[in-house]
Amino acid sequence: MSAKKSSSAARKARIEEMRRAERARERRNRILTIGASVVIVAGLVVGGTVLIRSQSDDSDAASSAKATSGKFVTEKDGVKKWSAKLTQNHVTKSVKYPMEPPVGGDHNPVWQNCNGDVYDKAIKNENAVHSLEHGAVWVTYNSKASDADIKALAEKVKKTPYSLMSPVDDQKDPIMLSAWGFQRTVTSASDPNVDKFFETYVQGKQTPEPGAACTNGIS
Q1: pLDDT digits (tens, 9 = 90+) for 16-35
Q2: Per DSSP, which regions of 80-174 are E strands?
Q3: 3-state DSSP call for residue 111?
Q4: CB count, 10 Å around CB of 83?
Q5: pLDDT tens for residues 54-111?
Q6: What's the first-to-final CA gap in the chain, in angstroms?
Q7: Cα 110 from Cα 216, distance rounded (Å)
Q8: Cα(140)–Cα(136) distance, rounded to whole angstroms?
Q9: 150 half-sphere exposure, CB direction, 13 A CA radius
Q10: What is the pTM of this model?
Q11: How many helices (H) and strands (E) does the chain have?
């Protein structure tokens, strides 16, 4: 078996293992209520006590400020790595991220569905960042990307669990790939760096919550 096929098989096995873990986690922890704008996660303890915590406007603002620290450092392979530790607080307010698209930081309690989901309209950064926390790769593009590239990338995403795709009009380059703490620009859908990025970062070592759900979120 070639090294490429072996790597691909290993990645598929890893993803399948993560999906099994995801299903097990979903059986243990059910999301009780997902509201249109506020999500309440209820934890049931032995005595039947339900604890509900919502963050105040002040704590949301403080968390958003924390997300602005750090900068991108470009590594030898052309992938940019965020230099500072990214915060992981759940907030219900908008977050001002220091990069576009964002690669981490405080985010909405509900993740964007990322089980090979392709969105033809912009999605909220706060939901997408939660998907990155779960180990997803986020493919984004702006109006300068060609229709052919958009179509080819969409087909790749549809075949890849723990990935999602959407337009981001304000990003610097036509096609960009993001994972938690990492980002790179690619020249086209056929750029070999696309496959390299997916191989490395779909449920990669950078994932803060490996095996967490990429389904039953927001779509």
Answers
A1: 766 666 665 555 544 444 44
A2: 80-82, 115-118, 137-141, 163-167
A3: coil
A4: 11
A5: 444 444 544 444 445 799 999 999 999 999 999 999 999 999 999 999 999 999 999 9
A6: 38
A7: 9
A8: 13
A9: 16
A10: 0.76
A11: 5, 11
Q: Which of 64, 77, 132 is nearest to 102 (CA)?
A: 132
102 CB-contact burial (10 Å; exposed 0-12 / middle 13-18 / buried 19+): buried
- Output the six-digit token pair for 79: 């992938």
| Burial class (CB within 10 angstroms; exposed 0-12, middle 13-18, buried 19+) of 160 | buried
Q: Which amino acid is at 38?
A: V
CB 97 within 8 A of CB 105: yes
- Residue 122 and residue 101 in contact, taking contact as beta carbons nearer than 8 Å: no
Q: Are 181 and 104 in contact (CB under 8 A)?
A: yes
**CB of 196 within 8 A of CB of 209?**
no
Enter the tokens of residue 33. 């209520």
Domain ranges of the chain: 3-201
